Structure formats: C-alpha cells, structure tokens
Amino acid sequence: MLIRTVLAEDGALLREGLAALLDRFGFQVVAAVADADALVAAVTDHAPDLVVTDIRMPPGFSDEGLRAAVRLRRTRPDLPVVALSQYVETGYAADLLDSGTGAGVGYLLKDRVGDVQEFVAVLRRVAAGGTVVDPDVVRTLLKRNPLAGLSNREREVLGLVAEGYANAGIAHHLVISEAAVNKHVGNIFTKLGLAPGEDRNRRVLATLTYLRG
C-alpha cells in the first residue's frame, strides 16, 4: 500500500532526491514543497499519510518546519511527522514529541542517516504510529530537562511539594519517616541546582521547575 507523503525541504536538489528515493520505495509523494507555509497548505489540500519535513526553512531558516509540524498536529493529532535536522532544536523537539496523540513522530539528524533501508524503515514505522527519535536528540533533551536526574521517589516528593504539602504531610502521604522526606527534599534541591538559602524560597523555585517540566 502506497504511503501518501508530503515532503518539505528548501534545498531543491535534496528535495528532488528525497522525492525520487521515496517513490522508489513505495511512497507516493503527493506534494514536495520548499517552505513552511507551503507545507501547511499541502497537508490541508492532500490529507497525507505522512509528513517528512526539514526543520530549518524559509523565511527565517530557524525552526519554521518544526513549528509548522507542531501546528499541524494540533489540528490533526494523528498526523505522522518525521522531522529532519542538522541540529537538535530542543524547544520545539520537545513540543513535537508531546504533540497530538504522542504517537507517529520521528526526529532524525541528517548526518546520522547513513543507511537508506533503515531510513525507509523508520518512515514506515512512524507512518504506522510508531515513534523514532535519534539517540543524540534524546540525550540533549534529557540534559535540558532538570527533572531528568531525579529518582522516582524524588519526583513523588517534588510533586507533593508542588501541591503545597509540608514535609510532615509528605511523610504521612508516602508512609515514610519525616527524616527520609528531609533527605529527599535536600537531594532535590541539590540536583536542581538550588543553592542553600531560605528553604521556603527553594521550595517555590523547585515547584516552578516541576511545573515547567
């Protein structure tokens, strides 16, 4: 079965090369466009099974393609999207992975796509609802997320801090000693890089970090 695909890439040679490659492997490229606005229009016109888009496209050559993909998945949450990039665009990468139903997303770094068969397999997997993310992207996002270093118990404690519980209330809720809660809270402050000071202020800052995460 043909996978109807919209391809967005501002480089003419790469765009034509990718279109020919996809055609060879059983994809039907219903539109091949050069900018983010044309991508949105093509998806609206053709209702494809898959979008493959570069991230940096005209007019700003920053993250127009990625922002367009996030926008498209707000209106069509099940639209499979594979984003291709030279770099890890952390802000919108996280937004893309969180968009829609959370399924049918690929984020690949161009320089690490070294095998055509593997690339095609990734496209098919995403079109079928799978999620494939380049390991470098995962590592960068984990470094960017300050909560990534917390243990499961520390996340539980921080969640209760965010709900306004004092340490005694957290201990009662989790059925652990207050001393254990004090230790967990101290570890949380350290891992989040909150320097010693008034604990009340650090609890507020930790809560804000939790809510942003």
What number is the mean pLDDT? 87
The strand line-up of the biggest sheet is 2-1-3-4-5-6
H/I helix tally: 10
SSE series: EHEHEHEHEHEHHHHH
CATH topology of the largest domain: Rossmann fold
- What is the correct CATH architecture of the largest domain? 3-Layer(aba) Sandwich
Q: Tell me the name of the CATH homologous superfamily of the largest domain.
A: Response regulator
Number of domains: 2
CATH class call of the largest domain:
Alpha Beta
- What form results from the Cα inertia axes? elongated
Can you count the beta strands? 6
Largest sheet: 6 strands, parallel
Comma- or semicolon-separated keywords:
single chain; 213 residues; alpha/beta; Rossmann fold; Arc Repressor Mutant, subunit A; six-stranded parallel beta sheet; 10 helices; 54% helix; Sig_transdc_resp-reg_receiver; transcription
